[in-house]
Design goal:
Blueprint (H helix, E strand, L loop, with lengths): L12 E9 L4 E3 H5 L6 H8 L3 E3 L7 H16 L8 E5 L10 H9 L5 E5 L5 H14 L6 E8 L9 H4 L4 E10 L7 E8 L7 E2 L11 H5 L6 E2 L1 H22 L9 E4 L4 H11 L10 H4 L6 H11 L8 E8 L3 E8 L3
Parallel strand pairs: 4-5, 4-6, 11-12
Antiparallel strand pairs: 1-7, 2-3, 6-7, 8-13, 9-10, 12-13
Helix pairs in contact: 3-4, 8-9
Length: about 350
């Protein structure tokens, strides 16, 4: 028999719903003052962070991700059984395998969904967003859940003041569906990786190169390590550069952007990026003060914040910009359709 196939029906993907979840327990700057030699003034002026949410022991990335997904689906009135695929971006999977996406699929009761995890550190969500969009655009799927979730507290050394003050735990989810005829949705993206950055931001232990042993634990290889200064400079330069060139190839300039949604790593990185782009801060989403850097979750959390603050209206031109370990960089151009 000869091979036949349905014709593809390309449609752009749109974000049709958002949802988020952060664990209730708070870790304030005052709490950190009693753990390491630091102070609220240093943390606020150098990073903009005041408080982070931290998962209780026994609560894992799949728990946060599942709750964010539930809220996202409830907001759209979609049942979990309608989901075709689940993509989870994370650097803190519950386990090395199975993929956290499989655990979320089960907890959510998404009985018809397949899925997988994607590892691109703080750019994980925007990378997964594009993968999800391609599943929609191909005509293969009509409902894809894209989740960014991390329990960073599980890989932080709470005796290292240079890293432990920066990160928090959280999850954000978006639902992707085909855009209607009068809608635009996700328009374009630019992604870059630069593997020379692998020595500036990493967790060395637990992989195939350094499997867990008593020695790797003693050497603190199962924690985040970073060269903060180098990361800072590259983050500002690359997020601005990529966003600007993405806009340019779509005939736009930063002045056309209604809402800029940057990765939330440091308030000074966000401000410097906005300044390079010539974007007024009232068009830039900032929530790092309340959540810290939640790695793959920052951008979907920021989308929720933008919705709450009324910064996103249907038809708004939106740019998402990320930067993270790898190095990974990503920028997404879309029209808001909710
Ligand atoms: N509390 C008080 N002092 C601290 C401190 C803390 N939590 N952490 C570092 N310091 C000290 C340093 O030891 C240093 O002291 P010294 O001058 O006596 O050596 C001083 O503060 C300045 O340190 P420096 O590293 O130059 O500060 P910075 O202004 O560069 O800020 C970061 C440090 C980490 C906040 C900043 O580099 C940063 O945000 N980098 C990007 C990190 C990031 O976003 N990573 C994730 C990317 S996705």
């Amino acid at each position: 028999m000869s091979l036949t196939a349905k014709p593809l029906t390309p449609a752009r993907a749109k974000i049709s719903s958002v949802g988020m979840y952060v664990p209730p327990k708070l870790l304030t700057n005052a709490d950190l003052e009693s753990m390491v030699e630091t102070n609220d003034e240093w943390i606020v002026t150098r990073t903009g962070i005041r408080v982070r949410h931290i998962a209780e022991k026994g609560v894992a990335t799949s728990d946060l991700a599942t709750e964010a997904a539930r809220r996202c689906l409830a907001a759209r009135g979609v049942d979990a059984s309608e989901i075709d695929a689940i993509l989870v971006a994370t650097v803190t999977p519950d386990m090395m395998f199975p993929a956290t996406a499989c655990l979320v699929q089960h907890k959510l009761g998404a009985t018809h969904a397949w899925g997988f995890d994607l590892s691109a550190a703080c750019s994980g969500f925007v990378y997964a967003l594009q993968m999800g969009a391609k599943l929609i655009e191909s005509g293969a799927h009509s409902k894809v859940l894209v989740i960014g979730a991390d329990v960073m507290s599980s890989i932080l050394d709470y005796t290292d003041r240079t890293t432990c003050i920066l990160f928090g735990d959280g999850a954000g989810a978006v639902l992707l569906e085909p855009a209607a005829a009068d809608e635009v949705g996700l328009v374009d993206f630019k992604h870059e990786v630069d593997g020379t950055g692998a020595t500036s931001l990493y967790m060395a232990g637990g992989g195939s190169l350094h499997p867990a042993t008593a020695e790797t634990v003693a050497a603190k290889m199962h924690y985040v390590h970073q060269d903060g200064g180098s990361v800072f400079k590259v983050a500002v330069r690359k997020m601005a550069e990529l966003s600007e060139s993405l806009l340019k190839r779509n005939g736009l300039t930063p002045a056309d952007v209604d809402c800029f949604v940057p990765h939330q790593a440091n308030l000074r990185i966000i401000q410097a990026t906005a300044e390079r782009l010539g974007l007024p801060l009232e068009r830039v989403v900032v929530n790092i003060g309340e959540y810290g850097n939640t790695t793959a979750a920052t951008i979907p959390l920021a989308l929720c914040t933008a919705m709450e603050k009324g910064m996103l209206r249907k038809g708004a031109t939106v740019v998402l910009a990320s930067f993270g370990g790898g190095y990974t960089v990503g920028s997404t151009l879309l029209r808001w359709e909710i």
